[in-house]
Amino acid sequence: MTILNETHALAVRGWTARRYGLMVGVVLSAVGGRYHIAVGTQMVMGPVYEAALPPKVAAILEVMWWQMAALIIGGGVAMAVAAFKVEWRRPLAWLVGGHYLVIAVICLAISIVWFGSPLGLFQWMIFGSLGLLLVWAGWGQTARNTGGAC
């Protein structure tokens, strides 16, 4: 079997590069979500709890912290579904991928303003990479143009 035939056989079974890309996104989201909750909560929210901030301020920060955890995990779940449902790929790319790219820009801007460097907050690299991966995975994907492959 030639390489072209093997590639075609994989595409017919539905294992396209875009599906693999989405599955990489699922793994990155799972690892990121676990790290965010297991390590980041104490590292970020611990000082917030100890800072004697007004309760409303601390509560808003906590809501935002857990909202980000939900976004990371929910994005991973959506990527898993989109990996196997081609009709989900384009909407997922625009909604979640676009949202991730906006978060990346926000993190980059805040990093530069607060730390004078893009390396002050590394989260922009993660969200930017996932956002680009999602946009790539959804680019040109419709149920009509896949030839039956997912």
Topology:
Elements: H1 3-12, H2 17-50, H3 55-84, H4 86-115, H5 123-138
Tell me what the structure shows:
By secondary structure, the protein is an all-alpha fold. The chain is built from five helices and no strands. Helix 4 packs antiparallel against helix 5. It is elongated. The two termini are 22 Å apart.
Proportion of residues in extended strands: under 5%
Mind telling me the C-alpha Rg? 19 Å
Helix count from the secondary structure assignment: 5
Mean pLDDT, as a whole number?
A: 86
Which keywords apply here?
150 residues, mainly alpha, 0% strand, disordered C terminus
Give a brief outline of the structure.
This protein is 80% helix and 0% strand. It is an all-alpha fold.
